Structure formats: C-alpha cells, structure tokens
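Section handout, structural biology tutorial.
Before the tutorial, make sure you can parse a SMILES string by hand: atoms, branches in parentheses, ring closures as digits. In the record below the ligand is magnesium ion, and the chain has 466 residues. In the tutorial you will relate the predicted structure tokens back to the input. Do not try to memorize them.
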Amino acid sequence: MSTELDLRWFGPLPKQLTFLRSPAREAVYAGGFGSGKTLSGGFKALLAALEHPGTVGLVGRQTYGALRDNTQKVLLEGDDKPPIIPPELVATRSEKGGTSVTLHNGSEILFRSFQDWNETKLLGPNYGFVYVDELTECTEKVWLAFLSRLRHPAGPEQAWGTTNPNGHDWVWRRFHPDSGQAESDTLLVHAPSEENVHLSDTYMAWLRSQQPEWQKRYVDANFDTAAGQIWDEWNRTVHVVPPFEVPYQWTRFESLDHGRRNPTAVLWWAVDPEGNLIVCDGYYEPGLVEQHATAIKTTRGERKWPPIVADPQVFTRGFDGQCVNDEYQRHGIQLQAAANDVAAGLNRVSEWLTRRAGEVFPDWHPYAGTLGPDEQGAPRLYVIDTPGTQDLRREIPDYRWRDLSPSQADKTDEPEEPRKKDDHACDALRYGVMSRARPWAPAPLRTDDDPRERRQLSVGLRDRSF
Ligand SMILES: Nc1ncnc2c1ncn2[C@@H]1O[C@H](COP(=O)(O)OP(=O)(O)O)[C@@H](O)[C@H]1O
Ligand SMILES: [Mg+2]
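Predicted structure of the complex:
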C-alpha cells in the first residue's frame, strides 16, 4: 500500500538521521536522557518494516515492564506523541507470547522482553531486523544470538540498539572506537541530551543541575564513568578533538615511557599560543629500541626536536654499566629524565584536565568561544582523535586506583596508588605534563589585567620555541 503517513511531528535530528540511514549491520545510538533514543530505534524499525515487505523484526528490551510501559507504548500507542507505527498501517495484532503486529505489507514486528528468555525461544525464528532498547541492560550473549538469527530472506539483516552508556561494558568494547576492539561494520552514534532540541528548557536545566558524575553518564552519555577512575575529570566529548592542522610554529615536545617487556609509549605534544597542551600523536608498541627509534624518527619528520622527556629509569645503569638511554642515543635519539613523583604527576594531569569556570574553549576546538554545552568552561589539556592516540584514549578512562583489600580499606592514610595495568601511555602523559609549568599557575605581577594575556606570558616563559 502507499504510505501517506503524516509523520510531520517527527523532525529527525542530525544524529538521528545518521542512525536511521546507516547501512551498518550493527548500530548503537548511545544517548543521554531524552536524547531521542527510543524514537530513533523505533523509527528505524518502522522504516525497515516498510522497506522490506514480508520481513520479521523484533523489538526487544530486557524487562517486560519497561518494554510494555515505554518502548512498545511509544511504537504502538504513542506516549506524549502519536505512535511511531501509525495504526492505519497495522493489519492485525496478536497478544500470543507477547504483542506482535502485522502490517498491511506483510511485515511482522514482535515485541519481546528477554527477562524470561531461554535458548529455545532465542533460537526461534529468523529475523530481518532486531531493535533492542536500552541495550546495556541485556547481555552480549543475547545480542550474539540475535546476530546469528539475522537471516530472514526479506532483509535488511540489521540489528541496532539504543542505550544510556554503562561504562566499559560489552557495548563499549563492541562499538566504541576507543576500545580498540570495535567490530567491523558497526556504527556508534553519540548523542548528549542537548542533541534533542525538542526537549524543554526546564527539563534540560533540571538535567544540568544534577550531580556531575550523574550528568556525565545520563546527560553527556559518556562511557568513561566507573568508580575508582584516577582522572575522573576526563570527558571524551570535551578533551578529545577532531584532527586539525597544527600550525608549524607551535611549540612541540615529546614524552616517552620505555617498556622492557611492555609496550613503549611515545606521545607527541603541541602547545598552542594560549599555552594549552595538545597530544597530537602517539606510538605504542612492544619491541626493541631500534624499532622504537625508527618509528620516532618517522613521526618526527624534518623538524628538530629537543630531548624526549622520559621515564628516569632509562638512565639507570645495569651491572654491565649499560642503560637504555645509551641505546636510544646510539640511534640518534636524546632523552631527558622526567620528574617521576607519581602522586605529583597524577595530580598535575588532573589539574590540566580540570575545566575552569568562565574559561572559553580555544578557537581550534568544536566548542570554540563557548563554555561548552554544560557551561563548565574549558580544560587546558586535549587529545587529538588520531589512530596514534588510540591507546592513550583507551588507557585514561581505565586508569584506576588500586583497590584496597577489605583489611586495608579503613587505613585511609595509606597513600593511594594506581593499579598496575596498562598504564604505559598514561605514564608518558604524566611525564609530558610534568615537564610543563602548572596550568593555572598564578600570574606574574603585571599591570595589564587581561587574563588571557597573563596566562600566555606565564606559560610563554617556560616554553622555549624549537
Ligand atoms: N526527532 C524528533 N522530533 C520530535 N520529537 C522528538 C524527536 N526525537 C525525540 N523527540 C521527543 O523527545 C522526547 C524524548 O525522546 P525519547 O526517544 O523518548 O528519548 P529517550 O529514549 O532517549 O529518553 C519524547 O517526547 C520524544 O517524542
Ligand atoms: Mg527511551
């Protein structure tokens, strides 16, 4: 039948459009409260059912209550808006084993919760598409089982989910580019609540008045939120910037954490004219000094570089009188010892990551000239989203304090220590930052009171140009 639908109330938002149009086999719309998750997932289901007559699709959610009261309701009955699936498209409706509807074009949509799901049910029919609302509530096992059933001849053989992020769980690993293990043919759309311009100002203001940690997960839709994070100031949407041409004249330096058995991590830094630190590139490989040196020289190109700020251990001589530094030197790479006070370094990185009230974002940042969507101001340290910085971006949110054993938990005067696990790029970050002045160092006395200029001066004093 022809589809003379009045869907004018649905003006897809840019991120919703990307999601709706994506041909990826697996897609996730990770969003904040009210960011239009259910609407995106629901409309993708309607489009799939209309474009693939005779297909069978499943719309699911972990708990039966949430399925009935929210997801299914938004699709079939309408909540505060008309139903996503216009009643005039529905030929029959059945309540056997859960609600299902058949459209006039022969497509069938089943609504199911996974609460009392078992293998037989799961391995039941073949599906043309599967939509899971609040995906992080279900297990990867369920998701994989659905993928294995995506073989209805009518197509489109796509599965998608919409969800609030839930830390570094299976959804993050499977879909997030920072996990380094994202599956191929997957799409992740990230939508903070602000993405939905249809939300009322009052509701948005309420969301933004909640606890910062809560906002990070439920409003910013950030995956980097689990207890014990050392750098919990880290907020991907603020600190990670899309690649841009870094002007040649900006100050550069490098930092290195040498791994004997572990990977060696190198970071390439730039300092913008306002003194902001930008990690532009990185290297992260196990191997011999010779290999590292070759890689470093390739990334360096023609430019002259000062000695690399490195883990002081590289200067420690073994019983044979040799040290790692000698090896780098043999390959034409000069090193210089970094300050290696761990506590001070961790703290210093936090200072650089901290956002300052009233501080606007630099002009090369997507939030240029603003205080950011939540008006919390700009930090001073950024990481460019290039493949080279991937290990750094993966390690930072996973860098955790060592858990105190129950017997130690009350010894609150115990110094806190990082858990020893994949912290090579974090160490290189610490060395790099420790080679700089403090980000908000008190300004030297001056009559001029333009804060920007003052900052430039205080940082400029430390930044020799190479
Ligand atoms: N593109 C859109 N056009 C009109 N209203 C929208 C659109 N996207 C979302 N909404 C409305 O915004 C509100 C939140 O959307 P919803 O999909 O329920 O968000 P979530 O599932 O992320 O909490 C609902 O009232 C919904 O109708
Ligand atoms: Mg929803």
